Amino acid sequence: MSFHEAFSSALQLLITLDPRVLAAAAVSLRVSLTAAVLATLCGVPIGFAVAARDFRGRRAIDLGLKTLTALPTVLVGLLVYTVLSRRGPLGTLGLLYTQWAMIIGETVLVTPLMAALTIAVVGGADPRIEDTALTLGASRFGAALTVLAETQRGIVAAVVTGFGRLISELGVALMIGGNIQGSTRTMTTAIALETSKGEFAFGFALGLILLAVALAVNVGVAALEPAR
Questions:
Q1: According to a count of CB atoms within 10 Å of the terminal CB, is the N or C end of the chain lower?
Q2: Quick one: angle between helices 200-224 and 152-167, nearest 10?
Q3: What is the pLDDT of residue 95?
């Protein structure tokens, strides 16, 4: 099949709302969005706590988080697999090869990234923001919220970056999701499977959806920025 034929067939799959394409896209969005929310709830407070105060071991924690951002996805998948497998400490929950297993794995994968990006954003904020808030009578917690509000654009960018990595993730989803059609098959795992079978049209269709999702996210972020 030529490139033109494969691309035309991919467009046809999208126009006709092929059930297999929609199912893989739905699983990807559900898992990635849930994991992004959980990683944000875990990573942003960690990053903010590290960046907001100077304490012994801060640089070591910062270095450790930056190192974990480069953790191979297959290694994260292996670690989560051993925890959720039948002989693992959480094996009795029966989560392996479910969407929740994928969510757990992807949350573990992206939380260090969210924390490291938050450290960079908050660490680069003007220190006078907190000082001014304290001078005006705000509590330490209130001053921290002021800093967080002033750096919200950077935090949003960090969240978008994390979601972008999750929606295109393959290793974790494949190892602990099992690529089960209609259940744990994501767009990336479906692309890997179908292209290995020569189904390039299906892979192109899902690839176009991935590009559309990335475009929609970036357009949304751009809409939040004030007009110049």
A1: C
A2: 180
A3: 92
pLDDT tens digits for range 144-177: 778 777 888 888 888 888 898 899 888 898 899 9
Q: What is the average pLDDT score of the chain?
A: 85
Tell whether 172 is covered by a domain.
Answer: yes
96, 89 contact by CB (below 8 A): no
**Nearest alpha-carbon partner for 38 in 87, 111, 133, 92:** 111
Q: How far apart are CA 78 and CA 105, in angstroms?
A: 9
**Model pLDDT for residues 81-131, shown as the tens digit of each residue:** 999 998 889 989 989 999 999 999 999 999 999 999 998 888 777 677 776
Range of the domain at 165: 27-187
Task: Tally the domains of the chain.
Answer: 1
Instruction: Give domain status of residue 59, yes or no.
Output: yes
Q: Which amino acid is at 67?
A: T
Q: Is residue 83 part of a domain?
A: yes
The pair phi, psi for residue 49, each rounded to 5°, is -65, -40
pLDDT of residue 84: 93
CATH of the domain at 87: 1.10.3720.10
| Residue 32: pLDDT over 80 | yes
Please enumerate, as own/partner, the contacts of 170-174 that have beta carbons within 8 Å and a separation of 24 or more.
Answer: 170/73, 171/72, 171/73, 171/74, 171/76, 171/77, 172/73, 172/74, 172/76, 172/77, 172/80, 172/102, 172/105, 172/106, 172/109, 173/31, 173/102, 173/105, 173/106, 174/77
Residue 98 and residue 184 in contact, taking contact as beta carbons nearer than 8 Å? yes
In a domain, 136, yes or no: yes
